[in-house]
What we know:
Low-confidence stretches: 10-15
Number of helices: 2
Helix content: 10-25%
Structural class: alpha+beta
Order of helices and strands: EEEHEEEEEHEEEEE
Radius of gyration: 19 Å
Oligomer: single chain
Number of strands: 13
Shape: elongated
Distance between the termini: 22 Å
Mean pLDDT: 86
Amino acid sequence: xxxxxxxxxxxxxxxxxxxxxDKDKCEKAIANALVDRGFDATVTCPSxxxxxxxxxxxxxxxxxxxxxxxxxxxxxxxxxxxTFRTKDGSLVDTSKIVKEAQAKLGPTAKIxxxxxxxxxxxxxxxxxxxxxxxxxxxxxxxxLDNETSGDLKWAVQ
Length: 157
């Protein structure tokens, strides 16, 4: 699914009149949401972002293996609540698809994906996982079906 998460990042009052997004809180909240989806990364956001409904800014997430992910942060209101989403595509948590496939294929099918979190950018992009059913090999193909919604489909080949 398309990663879009609402988080509250408290605004700080600076100088009594300018309110800014709490950079550290924003980075931590995004990092935690990414970890929940299998993407363990360090997140860096700009400092000094004024609180303003509808304003956007970008953050960068870099995983331990060097994989980079661009994040767009959208301010939902004037209270410091934000939504963020991946800019480069849909972040797929393969473990959720594997559970769904495992339920349909049965307990003898052992499914292994190279990574838990995979970024699929455009409709038709795929990632493959291996299936071993008592020595018989096949492939679980996960495909991005809709770029906007992040809808996925999967098939065994």
